Each structure stands twice: as C-alpha cells, then as structure tokens.
Amino acid sequence: MSLDQPPGQPSPEHLPVQASPAPVQPVWNRAVRPSRAGAIVLGVVGIVLAGLALLAVILYLTTFLGTGALLLGLLLALLPLAVVLLAVRWIDRWNPEPRPALIFALLWGAGISIASALVFDLGVRITIAASSGALAGSDFASAVIQAPLVEEIAKGFGVLVLFWAVRRHFDGPLDGVVYAATIAAGFAFSENIQYFGLAMADGGAQHLGVTFLLRGVFSPFAHVTFTICTGLALGLAARRGASKSGAFGFFLLGLLPAIGLHALWNGATFVLAGDASVLIYYVVVQVPLFIVAILIVVFFRRQEARITLRRLHEYSQAGWFTADEVSMLGTGAGRRQAMAWGARQPRSRQLAMRHFIADATRLAFVRDRLVRGQGAPALYAREALLLSLLINHRAEVLGQQPPG
C-alpha cells in the first residue's frame, strides 16, 4: 500500500466496479445524454470568435493578394488541408472527440493563431520603423526565431484552451495529438492561401507549381509535426490527472521541441544552398522525423485499444457486459463486425449501436482515470451516467423498450 493511500481503502488497481443491477441480455449469440457544457461553450462562443478571426484574416489577405489570387490560393490550400484532416479522422476513430471542439480547433488554427502571428509581426515592424535605425530586422531572425516562437505559442495555446474547456474529453496523449493536428492543419491552410496567392501574383503558374509542390505535396504535415509535441505533452498531463493550472507546466515543456523543430525546418532554407541540398535535408532529416511521429501515433492508438479491452473486461466481471460484447467493443475487428451488422438494421438501431460503442469506450477511459487515482465525484457521476446510457443503448439495439 502506498504511503498516501488511506487505511482500509482499496488500491487504485483493485478499485471495485459497481455491480450490474441485473443480468444483461447480450447484444450478440440508449436516461439523459452526458452534459456537454464545455463543448457547447466552444460551439457557440468559441467557434463564433474564432470564425470572426478567420474572416479578418481572409479580408487582410484580400487587400494585397486581390480576389482572384486569394480564391486560387484558397482552392489549392483545401487540398493539403483535406489530406491532413483525413489523417486526423483516422487517428480519432477509436475514441472520437466532440465535433464542436474539433471545429473550434480548426478555426483557432486558421483564424486566431494566424491573426496573433500577423499582429505580432506588425508590432515588430512598427518597433523597428520607430527606432530610427537603432534596430534592424532580418529575414533569418524572423523565420528562425520569431516565427517558431510566436506561431507555436499561438497554436499550442489553442490546445491548452481545449484542455481547460473540454477536460473530460481529454483522456490522454492521442487526444492531444488530434487537437494539436487539427489546429496545425487550420494554421497551414491560412498560411498556404498567402503563399500560393503570392506565388501566383509574383511568378505566375511556374512559381505557383513549385510552391505547391513544396508546401502541398512535400510538407503538408510540417506544422502538424511541430505542434503535436505540445499536444502530446498536454495529453500526458491529462493521463497523469494534472489540474488545469498544473497542465501549464506540461504546456511549456511541449513547446520546447515544437519550437525547436519549427526553427530547424525554417532554418534549413537559409543554411542550405540549392534545391538539391534542401531535398537531401528533407529526406535525411524531415522524413525520419515524420516517420517517428507516425510510429508514436500508432503506439498510442494501440494503447487506447488495450485500455478499452482491459477496462471493459473489468465491467464484464461485474456483469455489465458479456465476454462477446467486450470483444466487440474492444477490438477493431469486433467493431467492424458490429457496424456491418448495424448497417443492415433500421436507422434507430444502427444509431444505437454506434452510441453503444462510443459510450462504452468513454466508460473505459473514465474507469482508467479512476484506476489511476483520479477519483473526483464528477468522475464517479459520469461513470454512473454512462452505465445508465449503455443499458438504454443495449435495449434499443435489441429493439426493446428502454427501461423506465
């Protein structure tokens, strides 16, 4: 027993599961939805503010790009954005995050982060101009020092805001990756509009083609690779049960590699001379870093599946699930089979199956936090609510009347 464990209390790893009130009728041979106060705040207030910031960025870009170049840049920027968002969707499939939170994340990156970087850059330029020659700016300092610092802080702070606002949906490192990657995708989208529009205005189709190849084909995940460092750090804070104030230290810790990788990427264009050298750097440095990021994501995806299977097995032993249901809910093959079955059922039963899988996964992560010693009253209340919901989901899947 640990020194801080109260006498007579079970250790977290042996935390008992509340017994099922009655034997379950298995799904195999939806009670009130959980409160979404944080997600609603983001959906109504946050999304509006972030959307207004994006609108301001678009209007600003129109002033020097012109409407034609802006629209062309926007259309081209949608292509790498779609690629990144498809990858994020794959990462987020096991335990999906609330859609309002993801929309907010995208708009934060595309609007608030970009606006913050533009305002800071404007302030630097005004300061230099007002110094009467005492201060001098340089492209190198702007690209390798200013941009990584300002942009990663702006993007990373969006992940921190999500940690504070939707904490109960922020279960671990993979959630941090999803939010960070979505913010980074939004940031790259707005930045690409500017780069593509300027390339078309300054150098014509040939310059635009080279720029699209470099930013849209070679490096659509560059900003994602930087910012997920902050997302991973805040995800670890969630896994360790850090408070909202305690998460700030993890935020600062995650910023260090994010800023470093960003500076390394930007600095390569100044240190290396010639397209061949830049290509060699890309293959030797950036590709391995991207592969490492993929391996990290795959590792945490598998960890989420293991957590789900292990914790639902504990509920199975208390009578909440059958063994076959645990296999269905805790494995990729079982979920695919369940969704294929649901696709052949009436719409209501198909939706009930989706909710059954989603809420069972949420229950497993609530249980995991309880086992880790994060037993706040709100967490126990959420566990009870999810168990109640699952009883109703099971009844709807079976075509029965949900219990009173």
From TrEMBL:
It comes from the Bacteria. Residues 1-20 are annotated as: Disordered. The keyword Membrane applies. The keyword Acyltransferase does not apply. Keywords: Hydrolase, Membrane, Metalloprotease, Protease, Transmembrane, Transmembrane helix. The chain crosses the membrane at residues 39-62, 68-88, 100-120, 140-165, 177-197, 217-238, 250-273, 279-300. One of its GO terms (biological process) is proteolysis. It holds the Pfam family PrsW-protease. One of its GO terms (molecular function) is metallopeptidase activity. This is Membrane proteinase PrsW, cleaves anti-sigma factor RsiW, M82 family.
